[in-house]
Amino acid sequence: MMENNDLCLEDNLTCSDDKIDLLNEQEAYNLADFYKVFADKTRIRILHLISKEEICVHEIANILEMSQSSISHQLKMLRQANLVSVRKVGKHVYYQLADNHVLDILKNGLDHIQE
User: Fold this and answer.
1) In a domain, 11, yes or no
2) Would you say residue 8 lies in a domain?
3) Are 14 and 7 contacting, i.e. CB atoms less than 8 angstroms apart?
4) Residues spanned by the domain of 31
5) Are 87 and 72 within 8 A, CB to CB?
6) Residue 62 sits in a domain of what CATH number?
7) H/E element, 7
């Protein structure tokens, strides 16, 4: 009978009795859900664009050559994920990244794929 601190069969490593600090089910679900928002190239392009400057839907649609409706739909998802924030001036709504964490996620992802 093998004890927890006996050698692991495959790697000849000593197994530890230490508990590994795992994410609980809810944290894992929430994190997976968060990263799903980044799994769309249009949303990534929007995030990258508004990381440069505050911008309105009309300008985003023109730059990305997409309909305002499509852009608005994607921005709604980004707002729901708390990745972008809005500033209203009269009838115009300007979008910006919600905070520097979002910019860090984008930069880290780009760094990773460009290695």
Assistant:
1) no
2) no
3) yes
4) 25-113
5) no
6) 1.10.10.10
7) none
* CA nearest to 98, candidates 34, 32, 54: 54
Nearest to 70 by CA among 100, 45, 107, 97: 45
Q: d(Cα 64, Cα 32) in Å, to the nearest integer?
A: 27
Total Cβ atoms within 10 A of residue 77: 16
Q: What is the distance of C-alpha 50 from the center of its chain?
A: 14
How many structural domains is the chain composed of?
1
Give the three-state DSSP class for 69: helix
The answer to whether residue 4 sits within a structural domain is: no
How far is 93 from 2, CA to CA, in rounded Å?
Answer: 64
Residue 15, domain member (yes or no): no
Instruction: Look up tokens 């679900």; give the residue.
Output: 29
One digit per residue, the tens of pLDDT, for the chain of length 115 reads: 445 555 555 665 666 656 788 889 999 999 999 999 999 999 999 999 999 999 999 999 999 999 999 999 999 999 999 999 999 999 889 999 999 999 999 999 999 999 8
